């Protein structure tokens, strides 16, 4: 089997390319891709082996799912008779840029663990990795692997931008820049200035192109941004009919679709299939944001329609999109019924919790959803336990003190007792209940002040908030007197009263 191949551009020139699965930069990426790649292993092996079954089982805890995923990839590679077994597009977006804040550290760690497994598998051969929007950090990591690379030449057109100038741009941006030049909105000199002066060249070019599009094309693009997967073109565009008139949740005008294609906002599938169109990830991010501002109701209607239309599909890749669309239309029950994994629901519950803004019924709803995630998916999900406790504490207070305390204890345990926020909320809730927490606070401060300034702030603020809710003024003043210099330096928002 040949070494893995890194492709800058499209995979259309590769003989017998494998199915290519897309990363979207979404919270569910790692869960979704494990299910899809495990399904690919079953196709290659010809049966559902134990590793594939574990990958698909809703109740598999994350550590077991990741280990099974590694075994499944090895099995698929060993059984494959094709030069390339697996394909993935937009790998770069899977690389978490940092650990994330302590609030979301458990979720970031999942993504990082998944990304590391992918890199090891790519290093062992059998992959096609298509990079339409490469980043320097990921390029540096891939340079360390034993892989081959190929670069798709930048397209040249009559009197167009020089290929060597287009070659400075990510493959996804080249059609956009070429269109801007054709409509005389971008000269070679101006592009040269942009590359030299602008920190995010891609964002700048996409905004220029968005402003230059006709209004109906912009609105059509906003509605299409609700769809993540490449869409088949056959007198329609996926679930959208092609017709005349204004763009709407069910149909789009042909002229608007053509304008989006001309501008590079719709591009061919990265496997080169002429019958499939995709919206590049960064284009979709831009248009999603615009849709939220100007077409929120219409976009919600698109999601509701797609949730109902996609559920009966025989294609796994299509069915996996059902909970994504259901949640964005507010249909939690459909999402719960159709979810293969917890990622979409967990993200929805977290967003519900954060936007509750003092509404106990929303906190109670979020708590019920986190309890469902624990019962249905991963019983060792530290994030779900933490936010079960957090939302119960805010919706019911000390009336549910045993459940809150248990949730916080399990979150602290399943985070390997290394998350200062989870630890702080546990100690803070115990303080609110009137328990003696002085020794626990002292121990935590000694651990977290050892070179981790943000950890001290997360831990101490959570504990002092609990002391304030419990009206433990004397304990609060005593702890501040003891740890005042450290708190003033590393947790300035903590006060003695």
Overall average residue pLDDT: 92
Question: What sort of overall outline do the alpha carbons produce when their principal axes are compared?
Answer: globular
Indicate how many domains the architecture comprises: 3
Instruction: List low-confidence stretches.
Output: none
Helix content: 55-70%
Q: How many strands, what sense, and barrel or not for the largest sheet? A: 5 strands, parallel
Strand element count: 11
Give Rg in angstroms. Answer: 25 Å
| Beginning-to-end CA distance, first to last residue | 67 Å
Structural class: alpha/beta
- Give the neighbour order of strands across the main sheet: 2-3-4-1-5
> In percent, how much strand structure appears in the residues?
5-15%
- What count of helical segments does DSSP give? 24
Structural account:
By secondary structure, the protein is α/β, with parallel strands linked by helices. It folds into three domains: 5-151, no CATH class; 163-333, no CATH class; 341-490, Serine Threonine Protein Phosphatase 5, Tetratricopeptide repeat (Alpha Horseshoe). 58% of the residues lie in helices and 7% in strands. It has helices spanning 29-45, 50-56, 62-79, 105-123, 136-143, 163-166, 174-182, 188-197, 201-212, 215-224, 254-262, 281-294, 296-310, 316-319, 322-328, 332-338, 343-354, 360-376, 382-396, 401-414, 420-432, 438-448, 453-469, 473-490; strands at residues 5-8, 20-22, 86-89, 127-130, 148-151, 231-232, 236-237, 240-243, 251-253, 267-268, 276-278. A hairpin with a 2-residue loop joins strand 7 and strand 8 (240-243). Helix 21 (420-432) runs antiparallel to helix 22 and helix 21 packs parallel to helix 23 (453-469). It is globular, with a radius of gyration of 25 Å.
């Amino acid at each position: 089997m040949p070494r893995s191949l890194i492709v800058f551009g499209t995979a259309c020139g590769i003989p017998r390319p494998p199915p290519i699965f897309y990363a979207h930069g979404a919270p569910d990426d790692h869960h979704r891709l494990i299910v899809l790649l495990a399904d690919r292993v079953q196709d290659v092996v010809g049966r559902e082996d134990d590793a594939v079954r574990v990958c698909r089982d809703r109740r598999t805890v994350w550590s077991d799912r990741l280990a099974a995923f590694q075994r499944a990839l090895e099995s698929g590679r060993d059984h494959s008779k094709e030069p390339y077994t697996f394909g993935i597009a937009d790998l770069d977006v899977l690389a978490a840029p940092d650990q994330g804040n302590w609030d979301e550290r458990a979720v970031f760690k999942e993504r990082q663990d998944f990304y590391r497994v992918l890199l090891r598998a790519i290093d062992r051969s059998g992959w096609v990795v298509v990079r339409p929007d490469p980043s320097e950090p990921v390029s540096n990591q891939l340079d360390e692997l034993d892989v081959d690379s190929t670069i798709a030449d930048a397209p040249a057109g009559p009197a167009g931008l020089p290929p060597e100038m287009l070659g400075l741009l990510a493959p996804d941006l080249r059609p956009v820049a070429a269109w801007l030049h054709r409509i005389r909105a971008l000269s070679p000199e101006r592009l040269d200035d942009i590359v030299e002066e602008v920190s995010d060249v891609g964002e700048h070019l996409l905004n220029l192109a968005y402003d230059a599009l006709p209004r109906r094309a912009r609105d059509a693009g906003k509605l299409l941004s609700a769809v993540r997967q490449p869409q088949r073109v056959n007198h329609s565009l996926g679930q959208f009919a092609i017709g005349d008139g204004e763009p709407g949740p069910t149909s789009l005008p042909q002229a608007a679709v053509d304008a989006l294609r001309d501008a590079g906002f719709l591009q061919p599938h990265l496997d080169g299939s002429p019958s499939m169109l995709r919206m590049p990830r960064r284009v979709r991010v831009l248009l999603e944001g615009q849709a939220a501002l100007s077409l929120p109701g219409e976009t919600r209607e698109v999601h509701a329609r797609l949730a109902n239309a996609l559920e009966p599909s025989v294609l796994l890749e299509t069915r996996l999109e059902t909970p994504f669309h259901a949640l964005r239309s507010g249909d939690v029950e459909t999402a719960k019924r159709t979810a293969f994994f917890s990622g979409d629901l967990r993200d929805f519950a977290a967003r519900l919790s954060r936007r509750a803004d003092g509404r106990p019924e929303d906190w109670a709803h979020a708590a019920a959803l986190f309890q469902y995630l624990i019962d249905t998916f991963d019983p060792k999900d530290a994030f779900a336990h933490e936010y079960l406790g957090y939302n119960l504490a805010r919706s019911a207070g000390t009336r549910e003190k045993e459940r809150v305390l248990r949730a916080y204890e399990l979150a602290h345990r399943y985070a390997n007792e290394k998350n200062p926020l989870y630890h702080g909320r546990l100690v803070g809730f115990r303080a609110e209940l009137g328990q003696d927490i002085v020794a626990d606070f002292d121990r935590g401060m000694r651990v977290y002040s050892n070179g981790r300034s943000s950890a001290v702030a997360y831990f101490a603020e959570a504990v002092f908030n609990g002391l304030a809710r419990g009206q433990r003024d004397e304990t609060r003043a005593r702890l501040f007197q003891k740890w005042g210099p450290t708190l003033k330096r590393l947790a300035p928002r903590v006060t003695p009263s």
